[in-house]
Amino acid sequence: MKKKIITIDGPAASGKEKISKYISKKLKFKHLDSGILYRRLAFIFLNNKVDINNLNHIKENINKIKSFSFQKSKKIRTQEISNLASKIAVYNFVRLYINKLQHDFVTKNKYFQGFVIDGRDIGSVVFKSADIKLYVKVKAEIRAKRRYKQLIDSGEKSIYPQILKEIKLRDKKDKLRKHSPLVIPKDAYIVDNNGKFNFTIKQINKIIAKI
Ligand code: CDP
To answer: pTM for the whole thing?
Structure first.
């Protein structure tokens, strides 16, 4: 039986994780957050003092990686790692490496028959033939407010205007990069996540009823 795939793309702090978790629980699909992979790689580069402006250095370091953790962790959710992740995400070499990790994750997983995968290019590039594609839209100011609260709640120091600035900068980087920029996949359903989550859930339930 062909494995089912739902993709969720959208800008920083648009609520992709919350939506993914909702769908994965409801349909008993496995959730994969591709952002974690970019963050984990950024974390490895930071620890290994990789010069992220030097593609050869990046390639050498990726080729040295023996095992790669998909684990969520507080230390990869900092603003420093968010910014670094979006800097290394511009390289095609990095993207191809992470795309393969995602495909292997789906292929090698014997237990699950369905997957919900979120990121920036999942429906447009990584899993182009997904069964359902979602694109989450939320105003930058609302996203910044939510991310600010998340960081404060997790004990990080945070300043709202700074978060808004960084989110806008990351949006720009993600949308304007040459390789796999953030776009609305042409066959995607738009999910409006500006309001209360109940409103979002209503939209999602209608869409996933089609699977
Ligand atoms: O959680 P948040 O939306 O802030 O970010 P994330 O999904 O954890 O992704 C961190 C960064 O990784 C993004 O700003 C992107 O630059 C990059 N990324 C990407 O290029 N492609 C993906 N599929 C996922 C993340």
So the answer is: 0.95
